[in-house]
Amino acid sequence: MADDLYRSALKARMARLPDLPPWETGARAEGEGDGDVPGTGGEGEDEEMDEEEDDEDGVGELPSLNTLPRLTHRTRTPVDYSPLSAAGYFEQSLSLSLPSRGLDTRLYYTPPLVRAGGRGTVIVAHHGAGSGALSFALFAREVRVQSEGECGVLAADCRGHGKTASTTGSTGDLLLSQSDLSSDLLALLTTLFPSPGEAPSLVLVGHSMGASVVLGALPQLLKEGYGVTGVAVLDVVEGTALEALPHMRSLLLTRPKGFPSLEAAIAWHVTNNTLRNLQSARISVPALFVRNPTAAEGAGVQWVWRAPLEKTEPFWEGWFTSLSSRFLSAPSARLLLLAGTERLDKPLMIGQMQGKFQLVVLPGVGHHLQEDDPAAAARVVLEFWRRNERVGVGVKKVGER
Asked: Where's the active site on this chain (predicted)?
């Protein structure tokens, strides 16, 4: 995917992706393919040690070859790659009609607990290209737990992704410019919360391509009177992304066209370190695929990618161009949350030295940091919210001068 692969492109990892790991043929979990809201399942990651069996002939006798204890060996419990539903991670799964945008939007929502006299806060999370709303499932649960319900989370599949469908024909799925996606988000929020004065305060969170979308919607939300506490950008830097774009097509050609099962798709994402959290992968990956209508039953590629990322190439540059300047000029508090030691481009380096935004780097995570370490990502976003939502008189928000 365009936004998911830019770091690999810069490192020139053009070799063929590793072979798929073995999986149990014919195995299919109950509810497979239904990414809607999940039960929980075992992670299948614990190692079990076989017991040592000792043959004892008598006390004090020297052991013979037949009486030596058997060598201890380890067996690994088979990894469970079966899909999980998202129930228990979001409170609601809804389909919202947006006639003005020609969409039936699938969204997942956990409303905030609203105290007397308050309106609550909702973290609006927008996924990246090729991903989906359920990439924020574990993050949403962490937000609810860590904030004790004070913060809600809203995540939706954008057009052409997940279970959001165009009502005006298939071409509507490919209107993926930054302006189109920002208009979709604006229509979603104004439909859900039609009265700005009664709406909860919002924290806009965008992962990779989603960062460009939330930054595009922010000015109009403020103009219409909605309260936006801040905007958080997850693991995208304009300079790095633009440098990687020439390699994107080649990288997309290296990924499989599809998989024989959803278990195989989940296994591929985990074993290739696209996702480093098996539980999150079991929730988010199934929604990225759709049944292959041309495959014979039980043979060949049964599941193909839902989002045709190779067809989104005309929009790639528009997603990332001017991203840094738009972030630095956003009229709200600003947070940049990066994975590992991702470098800043020049505008962000200057902005960081001038104190224009808060920068946090999470160790041990990949590009999908909200999936790889949802607890840490939620903690950082909530600390950012608390710092800027409850500022006293005369205290500036992050980035204000």
From this structure: 208, 235, 367
